[in-house]
Amino acid sequence: MSLWDYGPNVMDALIELITSLAVSSGKYVDSCLDMLVTNFMPPHSYKDFLKKPHGLTRKDEVLSRVHTALKDISDLVPLAPLRLELIVVHKMQRVFFKESLTTIYVENMLRLEKGAMSEFVGRKILTALVDKLLDLDVEIGWDDILQDDFSKGIFEIELEDDNESTDDIDEDSSELPRELSRKSLGGNVIAETLDSLIVLTFEHLESCERDGRLSEVFDILLLSFQRTVLTAYKSKFAQFVIFYACALDPEVCGARFAVTLADMFVSCNGLPLTRMSAISYLASYLSRGKFLSTSLVTTILKRLVDWCLEYGKTHDVDLNPKAHKIFYSGCQAIMYVLCFRMRSILEIPRLKSQLLLMPIGRILTHRLSPLKVCLPSIVEEFLRQAKVANLFTPSETFIFNGLLESEYSKTFGGIERLDMFFPYDPCLLKRCDRYLRPYFVYWSMVRPTYDEEEEDEGSSDEDVAEVFPDKIEENLMDDEAMATSYDNREFDLDEFDNALDKMSITPRNSLPFRQDCVRMPSRIRPSMSPESL
């Protein structure tokens, strides 16, 4: 019997029967739990009915009774929560790619996660949800929708995308950049379903943040990210779940994610593809996360520079893209982050001193010749900014002709093309993008060191603060205030671990990482044309 087909009196009687039956004998528990979970979703004929006010009322009547019954059974049958989580996850795998049904099912999963049984079923449910998002994600292929021009660099392409998409911007959001078009995703059932599910997850994270349990949920998301998303083949959207969690709590979750990725990259025990995927995520995250402090970005950069320097000392050999791909991925990450962040770092005196003292020149002029191997478009943009900033000027002249890639970069990127793996490029899902925009840095928002338009056009400091809010505040602080400011103190990793320990959060260096479930990372284009998606 489906609760959706009956009035309140019959529903109450049926719920009472199911609860009593489950409690009466252990052999009926699974059948009763299965019946209740089945009622998470309405019959197919209710699709249009649920869009009406009366349909929403019926939905609330049914689901409130279902969750109350699940709670009552779990209170009376100690093993019921364990059986419930297995049933919920199993049915999740069988839900078809129909947006309306899948969305309602996930709503109920998240209701369980934040409800009274969260302690027993929350971890399993969140992990299953991330797996489901990833399954939907990989069903959306790039090959049919990408039309990149390989004669142009990634920054040039993104700016062109921004210009061509301005005509499609809604009036309410005309001041925000829209780097990529999503026209080809219109009518794509899987993409629309994924968009809806990620938005539900975003809203759930907001609820967790309000309830003060975001750190607990983030612990689960981070472990799930390491086990599946990090090494997933062709992941394009699922990674934005943990990005949004970091945006809601940048000082703890945001910093922890960056430190974890850096740990994975410098670890000698990790698989090469895993380490390269981790540094790709880290570079993209540091570049695109508007909520990240400039101090944290500088600290992580120094750690990457130090690792590359030590690697160069122990490998004093000539250029070899295939044998030293981890080194090249580290060098490219450093340059990519500085393309986005160089100016914001240089405008803070203390951080500018730290950046100028980093031995970046020694790394880039090493015999391994990273400037010849890394993506030409990134190297060209970095050299242009570094020269103006007096950070680094190569002794030889490099002519790239605006190329996006080279034979060397293809070699070090491997068949997975990790040289072109930029997981936090602008999100192509329309609804998700609206949530991410306030926390996201688009290339059109970045002011390179060679951009002097603000002097000619009288740009104010407020324009700068809009992109990196912490920068202006730091310049205005006096020495005493600077000593206590989060953005103006040294970001100490040991202090960070101690803080996590006091908050009963798993320390960053003790999270397990299963190498036996590694999947090959994907080749993701750094930017898409406005008509492509």
TrEMBL record:
Domain of life: Eukaryota
Protein name: RNA polymerase I-specific transcription initiation factor RRN3-like isoform X2
GO cellular component terms given for this protein: nucleus
Molecular functions per Gene Ontology: RNA polymerase I core binding; RNA polymerase I general transcription initiation factor activity
Database matches in PANTHER family: RNA POLYMERASE I-SPECIFIC TRANSCRIPTION INITIATION FACTOR RRN3-RELATED, TRANSCRIPTION INITIATION FACTOR IA RRN3
Biological processes, Gene Ontology terms: transcription initiation at RNA polymerase I promoter
Origin organism lineage: Eukaryota, Viridiplantae, Streptophyta, Embryophyta, Tracheophyta
Family, per entry: Belongs to the RRN3 family.
Organism field: Cucurbita moschata
